[in-house]
Amino acid sequence: MKNFCASVILILSFAFTAIAQPNSQKSEPTYTSFIDYQKNFPRPGEALKRKEDTLEKQFIAKGLKWPARYIYLRSFKYDSQLEVWVKNEIKDPFQLFKIYKVCALAGSLGPKRMEGDYQVPEGFYYITEFNPNSSYYLSLGINYPNVSDLILSDLLRPGGGIYIHGSCVTVGCIPITDEQIDEVYILAAHAKDQGQDFTPVHIFPVRYNVQRSVDFLENLTKDDPVLKKFASRLEDAFDYFEKYKQLPVVMVSEKGEYIIDAVPPRKPVVIKDDKPVRKIQVQHRIRNLGLLPDVVNQWPQYPGGGDAFMKFLEQTGAEMVVYLPKGLRKAYVQVEFIIDKDGVPVNFKVLKGFNGEDFINELITRMENMPNWQPAMLNDKFVAKKMVQTITIEVPQQ
User: Fold this and answer.
1) DSSP-based three-state secondary structure for 191
2) Regarding predicted confidence, which is higher, 355 or 54?
3) Cβ-based neighbour number of residue 390 at 10 Å
4) Window from 104-113, 123-132, 337-346 with minimum mean pLDDT
5) Largest alpha-carbon pair distance within the chain?
């Protein structure tokens, strides 16, 4: 322990901290449980009515005890995933309940270091707030900035207000759909109701057991030793949980660096030779549709209309900034795709603007995440229709 200051700060991933209490001068109603308190609000109250029975059945189907006394949330930025792990006894290993798709990523990989950088934090956090009246439907606030962030981030403007929330949009949070946040909110509320005051939330840049994700991170950090070291410390925590399915003890040094206790040995690194490496082929949504009509009575309709589609394209363009080659600040990419007669968008193809294979695969993967459309109509029948759209990908002005 000689490398740390005498007052090394231990941060247990399930650590407890005091939540701000209501003003004692106000007269507040008394509730018998936290769940009863949440039922007092329209959105979580309705969510509990809609989802609680379904969640219980899903638990039973997976051999899990309902409701979970302990939950753990694990998010991966590059892979756009939010995992929910559950257990009922402190000594039990966590079991995976569900993986949710994260709608969007603001900023790029790497930790949040100042207000207004649109970065999603990376590190070890826990839920400190349940917001039943969020501007983004429902939200769960996390304790950014934590102890490490306060040391390493901008002293005057480290930023704050980081949430897991609904509405599927973001400027630096972890957004999922309203249907999904209903479930996560209910699970967290039930755990809190049973004594887990602060649900641990670990945010990683990538899945360290997915080669494509690791390759991207290695390329991103190859000229940035500080970011590379930071990502390696997070990998220590990932490895610990993967081996033991328990949360690691996380320490913070006087320099703000994370130190993970009892890290298991890392898998040997495979040194690549100079032989060509065969790339993994990304499977996209391709259908054989034959001839398509040039003229239709009604064009395909995106859910929410044209404005909603423009917002989706803007968000996709913002997410793709991190994948631009070094030195390139702006790109216009023309994409062709087909809305099939069942409303599913298929057969994406980049026509103009960029030739990088990895970039194109990533863009198409994200475009394929758009929701189903109302298909085109011709002579009162649904038909497939080709669409062409330009997406602007631009690094924001500093």
Assistant:
1) helix
2) 54
3) 13
4) 104-113
5) 79
Backbone angles phi, psi at 64, to 5 degrees: -105, 150
Is 341 buried (19+), middle (13-18) or exposed (0-12) by CB count in 10 A? Answer: middle
Q: Is residue 291 part of a domain?
A: no
Residue 30 in this model has a pLDDT that exceeds 70: no
* Residue span of the structural domain in which 370 resides: 306-394
Per the CB < 8 A criterion, the answer to whether 118 and 143 are in contact is no
Q: What is the pLDDT of residues 218-233, one digit of tens each?
A: 988 988 999 999 999 9
The length of the chain is 398
Check residue 323 and report its DSSP letter: G
Q: How far from each other are the two terminal CA atoms of the chain, in whole angstroms?
A: 41
Which tokens hold the place of 294? 């040039």
pTM (predicted TM-score): 0.63
Q: Do 256 and 315 share a domain, yes or no?
A: no
Three-state DSSP class for 374? strand
Q: Residue 131 belongs to what H/E stretch?
A: strand 123-134
Q: What is the DSSP letter of 363?
A: H
The answer on pLDDT for 277 being more than 70 is no
Helix (H, G, I), strand (E, B), or coil: what is residue 329?
coil
- 3-class DSSP state of 264: coil
Number of structural domains the chain divides into:
2
CATH of residue 241:
2.40.440.10
Q: Which residues contact 216 (CB under 8 A, 6 or more apart)?
A: 78, 206
Cis before 371 (ω within 30): no
Q: Is 334 helix (H, G, I), strand (E, B) or coil?
A: strand
Closest CA to 140 of 161, 114, 121: 161
User: Quick count: other Cβ atoms within 10 Å of Cβ 273?
Assistant: 6
> Residue 251 contacts by C-beta under 8 Å, 6 or more apart in sequence?
4, 8, 9, 10, 11, 258, 259, 260, 261
Q: What is residue 98's three-state secondary structure?
A: strand
